[in-house]
Amino acid sequence: MLKSARRAAQGRKPKRERDPEGRMPLAEHLRELRNRLAVAVLAILVVTAVAMVFAKDIMNILTSPLPLCTEEEAAAATGGGCATVVQQGLTSPFTTYIKVSMLAGVVIASPVWIYQFWAFVAPGLHQHEKKYTRAVVAVGVPLFLAGVYFAHWLLPRAIPVLLQFTADDARNLVDVSDILDLTVRMAIAFGVAFELPLILVMLNLGGVVTGKRMLGWWRGMVLGICIFAAAVTPTDVMSMVALAVPVTGLYFLATGISLLNDYRRRRRDPDGGLSPDEASDLDLTPSALGAPEEVGPAGDTGAERRPRGFDDVT
Questions:
Q1: CB–CB of 212/173 below 8 Å?
Q2: What pLDDT score was predicted for residue 189?
Q3: pLDDT tens by residue, 96-140
Q4: Cα–Cα distance for residue pair 165/79, rounded to 1 Å
């Protein structure tokens, strides 16, 4: 109150106090979304600018899964045992540098944009649910990086399989932009896919979905994970299975954690899972009544009390 009065005396607009339950008008929601996006994009751009200095080294790491042909093999047709890296066009090297730098920016700045995403969602949660903010960043960033690393581990094993489909007496000329597009797509897809258990657990902690319902979705979830894996991985079965199996395992892990959380929540509050229109169970067990107590005016002795302890009215 004093601060508001002081601001009014100085001619300044009093600062709007934040709702303890996180409620705000639509305009403020949009303004906060704009600010969160600006911080996340700025962090990615700063890391991208720094990564451009090391773009060539990063490019060599990203193209390392491709088996390169030696001079002797390049002079003759190899039938798909190796490939020759090429770059076509004057602008291709520059655009490749930009793609490599932006990939590094998205990966390295992941703690910032994951935190900004959660900070935008957190005001809508209850006070006891906001304590998971640090846990989201502490778990979400390693999961994203684990997905990126898994994609980098999978590519050297998937690319030789794809090269074996090359026609006999033919040479493979692979553009750098093609291998980088594949690497970037798989890195981001694997990183986002590994965030699935975190999203499910946070929905459960927020009371949006129960572990029992998540378990009932297992057929559709497994099918959806397989379709997603087939869409983002190269056209071989090994890559699809390599992505679908760990993500499915993470889904069941998140379901188990949610079931344990629901059990803990039921023990603490048995009626917490009821809908607003559903009545809680009543305890109708009869209890024994004790003997009635004698009633008398204050200061009465035992001899002066009314018969059987009742007053004149009764």
A1: no
A2: 84
A3: 888 888 888 888 888 888 778 777 776 655 555 556 666 777 788
A4: 9
Report the predicted TM-score, pTM, of the whole model to 2 decimal places: 0.62
Tokens for 227, please give them: 């379709």
Show the low-confidence residues of the chain (pLDDT under 50): 1-2, 75, 303
Task: Tell me which residue has tokens 């998205």.
Answer: 106
Helix (H, G, I), strand (E, B) or coil at 195: coil
DSSP 244-303: HHHHHHHHHHHHHHHHHHHHHHHHH-TTTT--TTSPPPP--------PPPP---TT--TT
Nearest to 179 by CA among 79, 267, 103: 103
Q: Which of 151, 146, 121, 149 lies closest to 136, judged by CA?
A: 121
Structure tokens belonging to residue 217 = 């979705």
Contacts of 121-127 spanning 24+ positions with Cβ under 8 A: 122/22, 123/22, 123/24, 124/22, 125/22, 125/206, 126/21, 127/20
Look up residue 33 and give its two tokens.
């979304």
Q: Supply the DSSP symbol for 84.
A: E
Neighbours of 167 (CB within 10 A): 10
Q: Can you give the pLDDT at residue 75?
A: 47
pLDDT in tens, 14-30: 555 555 555 666 777 78
